[in-house]
Each structure stands twice: as C-alpha cells, then as structure tokens.
Amino acid sequence: MKSFAGIAVIALGLAGLGGCAAVTKEQCVAGDWSELGKAHASVGKPASHLDEVVKSCGKHGITPNTEAYMSGWNRGLQNYCTPLNGFTLGKQNKQKSPICPPRMGAGFNQAYQLGHVIWSARNRVERAETEVRSHEMRVDELEESLSGLNCKDKKKDEPKECRKERKKLRQRLDDAEFDLSSARYDLDDLRTEAEFISARTNAEAARLFAW
Predict the structure, then answer these.
(1) 139-150-140 Cα angle (round to 5)
(2) Which of 84, 91, 90 minimizes the C-alpha distance to 107?
(3) Is 118 in contact with 91 (CB distance < 8 Å)?
(4) Average pLDDT over residues 110-126
(5) What is the model's pTM?
(6) DSSP assignment, residue 103?
(7) For residues 54 and 37, is the Cβ–Cβ distance under 8 A?
(8) In sequence order, which residues have a C-beta less than 8 Å from that of residue 86 and are 6 or more positions away?
(9) Alpha carbons 83 and 124: distance in angstroms, whole number
(10) Contacts of residue 176, Cβ cutoff 8 Å, sequence gap at least 6
(11) Cβ–Cβ < 8 Å for 82, 110
C-alpha cells in the first residue's frame, strides 16, 4: 500500500507544477511549505529547486519557510526513490533524477534499468510497426499506379511502351509485397519477444523487490 500511496502523491505533485514559474502565487500565499517540498521531491526536483521557490515567492513579497520545505522535501524522497517508481520511470523511458541518496538509489536504479529493458523491447516493436506501415503505403501506391495504367487505349507504339511500364510496376509491386511480408514476419517475432521479455522482467522485479 505504501508504494501505491507514493504514486498518488507523485501524481498530485505533478498536477501542481504547471507553468514556467517554480510555484504559483496561490502556492506562495498558501504557505504549505512542507507539502510543497514533498511534492517537488516526489517528482524528482532537486533540493536546489528551493532557490527557485524563494525567487518566485519573493516576487509576491513572500518568504518561504526553508526548514519546513526541506523537511517535506526529505519526506518526498521516500516517494520518488522507491524501486516501484524507478521501474515505472524506466518502462516509460523517462529521465531519472539524481536526487536519490546511495541508501535508496541502489534499488531505485536497479529497478529503473529493469523497467527500461521492457521499454526497449516495446520500442523495437513500435519501430517495426512503423516500418510495416511504410511498406503498406508503398504497396498501396504501386497498386494504385498499376491499376491506373491502361494500355488498351494507347496508339501506335504506345501500347508496347505501356506494357513495359506495367511490367516494371508489377515487378516493383512484387518486391514491395515481399518486403511487406518480411516486415510483418519480423514484427510478429518482435511482439513475441517483447511479451516474453516483459513477463520475465516483471517476474524478476517482483522477486527482487517483493511486489
């Protein structure tokens, strides 16, 4: 339950970090410095982010309670630096923050790498899907060109040249269809591989971190 609670806090922290400013005027006025620090650490903001908070709130004539902020920030580390969060970030290929201390960073980083293994497998599938779509478009274009080339109404030597062109298009279409078939075959293999890697990696993460 602690892990799910941590994820919820991270989501709440993200929701409050819109715009270019470190904090909004409303957050400065509210003055809930401990929760603000916790929210920032929960999404990977470094402790130095406090300087931006001080600057932003200073524009509104408000001075943050830096001790309360840092107290909350240290509590936020407990949310960000979990193996579950590292695993989730890795699966999403999101950049990880270097804020985790050594005692927490080892599990976080290991889980991140495991999550990234799953992302890499899925990314290979996505690239293969893009390649298949490209081949499909090529086949469609050649089929359209071939169907639109009518040699019956040609005059004099034109039918002969037209038939040569049709033959060339037919060969290109055959090649394109072969490439499409090969790409689809590769895609099926990659999907099977990704499913296997995902199941194996999830099982390994569950074993290592007792999820």
Answers:
(1) 10
(2) 84
(3) yes
(4) 98
(5) 0.80
(6) H
(7) no
(8) 96, 107, 108, 109, 110, 111, 112, 115
(9) 25
(10) 135, 138, 139, 142
(11) no
**DSSP 8-state assignment for residue 19:** S
Alpha-carbon gap, residue 188 to 134, rounded angstroms: 16
Is residue 87 a contact partner of residue 111, using CB atoms and an 8 Å limit? yes
Residue 5 has pLDDT above 70, yes or no: no
- Tokens in use for 122? 């899925």
Separation in Å, CA 88 to CA 85, 96, 140: 5, 10, 39
Q: Kindly report, residue by residue over 12-69, the tens digit of the pLDDT.
A: 444 433 445 789 999 999 999 999 999 999 999 999 999 999 999 999 999 999 999 9
**Token pair of 100, please?**
């985790």
Per the structure block, which two tokens stand in for 94? 């999101």
The size of the chain, in residues, is 211
Residue in the block written with tokens 């999820």: 211
Q: Which residue in this structure is represented by tokens 């090969």? A: 182
